[in-house]
Amino acid sequence: MNHQIMIVEDEFLIAMEMEQIVGNLGYDCIGVADDTDSAIELVAKKPEIALVDVNLSDGPTGPVIGSRLANEFGVKVVFVTANPKQLGDGIEGTLGAVTKPVEIDLLKDVLNYLVEVSNNGDEVEPPPRMKRFN
Length: 134
Known about the structure:
The chain is α/β, with parallel strands linked by helices and about 130 residues long. Helix content is about 35%, strand content about 20%. It has a 6-stranded mixed sheet with strand order 2-1-3-4-5-6, sandwiched between helices. The model has no long low-confidence stretch (mean pLDDT about 95).
C-alpha cells in the first residue's frame, strides 16, 4: 500500500523540495498546505502521515495544526522545523520533531518510521536524530 503523505510548509522552495523527495522515495504526496485553512482542507484527502512546519503563512500555527491532524483525524504527525524549541516538550498526539535543514537520508528515515508506526503501532524506535514526544 502506498502511504498518503501531506506536507504543511509555507516556504515554497522547501515545500517543492520536500514534495519531490517524498515522491522520489516512492511515497504519494497528496499536496502541500501553507496555513491552517489549507491544511484542514487537504486532510479531506485522508493522509496517513503529515510533515508539519511550526511557523506558517498564518503565524506559528503548526503546533495547533499538528495537534488537530493527529487528534481529530488520526494522522501520524512529525514536525519538520527550524524552531523545535517552540514545541516545548511536545504536542499531544504528535510523534516528534526533526530540525531543519533536513537531509534526504533523515527524511527517508522519518518517513520509514512513520510508515512503521502506521503499520505496527507506537512501539517502533524513532530515527536517532528525531526528538520523540512522550
